Amino acid sequence: MARVLLFGRLADLAGWREREIPAASLAALRGVLAAEDPALFEALQAPAVRTAVDQALVTLDVALRPDSEVAFLPPMSGG
Length: 79
Description:
Layout (H helix, E strand, L loop, with lengths): L1 E5 L1 H7 L3 E4 L4 H11 L1 H7 L5 E4 L2 E3 L10 E5 L6
Parallel strand pairs: 1-5
Antiparallel strand pairs: 1-2, 3-4, 3-5
Helix pairs in contact: 2-3
């Protein structure tokens, strides 16, 4: 099971910050999220949302190991 982390407004929208989700690839994980929460899935599709797998930013589909960590990172702002 992949450990999935959401940050900022993504966590607020989903109502959770961390979950274990079974998925063999990033595409499969996105499919699970789309089926469970279409609004979250839509938010994850925003161009400014970055995805990290095992603390490395990725832009394409990648295979996930059972102990993979997937983080969805919204745009950061600060001052």
